[in-house]
Design a protein that fits this description.
This protein has about 270 residues and is α+β, with helices and mostly antiparallel strands. It has one domain (about 70-274). Helices cover about 35% and strands about 15% of the residues. The strands form three sheets. It has a four-stranded antiparallel β-sheet, with helices on one face. Strands 5-10-8 form a three-stranded antiparallel β-sheet, with helices on one face. It has a three-stranded antiparallel β-sheet with strand order 7-6-9. A hairpin with a 2-residue loop joins strand 6 (about 215) and strand 7. Helix 3 (about 140-155) packs antiparallel against helix 5 (about 245-255). Bound molecules: zinc ion.
Length: about 270
């Protein structure tokens, strides 16, 4: 009988311990942990979603490929300065200069660095989405370009690419063939010691593939870029064509730029200069 009672007590004890001791406390604790975990996962997922949105649609304020260590060497100019449309002066020890040295800023470049500005802009691409653009130009047209590019952006005007020509190793033809819009690329006018308008950063080309440079040389039609032949006929109707009805034409000319499409000895439909 005593033995039976003892076994019974043991069973009761075991059942009590089992219910209240371990599982009774661990179960809620496990639930809390799981609930924290799922909150963390949700938060992380949201963060990564936000980041994706930021990268694809709402570009940040930092120039591409340019770390912030150069910030103390750069001075924001007094030109138009907003979160997404701004100009920066840069020096020979800056990250920006490192990107253009020996490329668009060739070794024989006679344009002082303090005359150039790095511009950050937004533009609507051919995909209809906002993209970041980078331009190096002369400080004399920096404010014009920031105002014009902001107006083009707000109007939804499509510009496919606005990258530094240095990303094409400063090769004009390669940049134009890729329909890249760009400004500064140091060079003298052929067989002269005169700096070209792009050489001083006083000119810019817009959607060059659709708006070629056309010149007749010794009776032969010279077209740049070479792959822009389908867009030589300016009477034809196609998208991204710059003519007098085009918004870029209207904004640039309103800011005092002249248009290469109005030249007589050659035509440079992509080109605006001051
Ligand atoms: Zn040009």
């Amino acid at each position: 009988m005593k033995r039976y009672v003892a076994i019974l007590v043991c069973i009761v004890l075991l059942v009590t311990l089992g219910a209240c001791g371990k599982d009774g406390e661990q179960q809620p604790a496990k639930e809390v942990v799981e609930s924290i975990k799922s909150e963390e996962i949700l938060e992380a997922a949201n963060k990564s979603k936000d980041k994706t949105t930021d990268e694809n649609q709402v570009p940040n304020n930092e120039p591409n490929n340019d770390n912030t260590t150069g910030e103390d060497r750069m001075t924001t100019t007094n030109v138009k300065d907003t979160e997404n449309f701004y100009g920066i002066e840069f020096t020979a020890d800056s990250d920006i200069f490192a990107r253009i040295k020996g490329k668009s800023y060739k070794d024989d470049c006679t344009v002082p660095l303090e005359d150039l500005r790095y511009l950050h802009v937004l533009h609507v691409g051919f995909d209809g989405q906002p993209h970041e653009g980078e331009i190096i130009c002369n400080k004399a047209i920096a404010e014009d370009l920031l105002e014009i590019f902001e107006q083009l952006y707000e109007a939804g005007y499509q510009i496919e690419k606005i990258k530094l020509v240095d990303e094409y190793n400063a090769e004009d033809e390669a940049s134009m063939a890729d329909n890249n819009s760009s400004s500064f690329n140091f060079r003298f006018i052929s067989h002269t010691t005169k700096i070209s308008k792009h050489g001083s950063g006083m000119a810019i080309d817009i959607n060059p593939l659709y708006n070629p440079y056309i010149k007749t040389v010794n009776g032969n039609l010279n077209i740049e870029p070479a792959n822009s032949t389908p867009y030589v006929d300016r009477a034809a109707d196609f998208p991204h064509k710059i003519d007098e009805t085009d918004l870029a034409y209207q904004l640039f000319t309103a800011h005092g730029f002249s248009w290469g499409g109005a030249w007589t000895t050659s035509k440079d439909y992509q080109h605006f200069e001051k």
